[in-house]
Amino acid sequence: MINTPFNYTGSKYKLLEQIIPNFDYTKNTFVDLFAGGGSVYTNIVDKYDTVYINDIIENLIRIHKELIDSDDIIEKVKKTVVSKDDKNGFLKLRESYNQNPKPYKLWALMLCSTNNMMRFNRKFKYNQTFGKRTYNPSTEKKIIEFVNHIRKYKSKLIFSSKHFTNIISSNSMVYIDPPYSNTEAGYNAYWNKNDDLILYDYIKKIDKNNSFMVSGVSEHGGKTSRLIDMLISDNYNFKILKSNYQGVSRNKSKKQGNELIIMNY
Ligand SMILES: C[S@@+](CC[C@H](N)C(=O)[O-])C[C@H]1O[C@@H](n2cnc3c(N)ncnc32)[C@H](O)[C@@H]1O
């Protein structure tokens, strides 16, 4: 499996060996509806003719796209990151991003942020704290591995940054990995209270003309996910995965939920 160079909260990288064999490979088109750090599309790209990559965070999608197009963004990021002890530099960069957001600034911020995690407030301003970290040889290694792999498939990748309801698909394998409303993540600012229900309706709509797989956690810290509960009571197939979900809950002592996948095929 190829990792992507983002260390993304909620990345499915560690679960890929359990997820990937379960996609429907009779379809020609794959849709990664909530692409995030991109670990899923990166590892199925050789199996489909066309791969749609969507995430609501526009500058995140632009990072993927620019990185696949050329090395320019890598050079800009290297010049933009601050050193491990430069908290003031980090705060200036954060301010600069919030005034004038650009993909390379977002990636530089992530590289210098606490646990590499992006985080936005409800006004979509970047508010993650300084992580005393920066671009390092391991980042470089991951970037090289990722671009050497993914650039071969550039012509079949189609990027978008839309709300999921605006992605219309038919006869596709649609992979749905939404923010888990029963866990905490820095991009949950983009996930509204009703989005679980809106996503449920969306899934019901695409059910007729597509294969879908939804990822979720059944229970996390005592909270259940409405979306997952509803899909399971609709009798779709599901599999519980061996879980190694980490790094999102603030309270590590709380019981971790069961990661599962739900499929209409
Ligand atoms: C659990 S993460 C996906 C992780 C991804 N599968 C990976 O392996 O890195 C969920 C993603 O949904 C995105 N998102 C949140 N609200 C959205 C919306 N309304 N439409 C599309 N994407 C959205 C977030 O930005 C986040 O990147």
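^ S-adenosylmethionine complex. The chain has a mean pLDDT of 93. Residues 14 and 145 are 17 Å apart (CA to CA).
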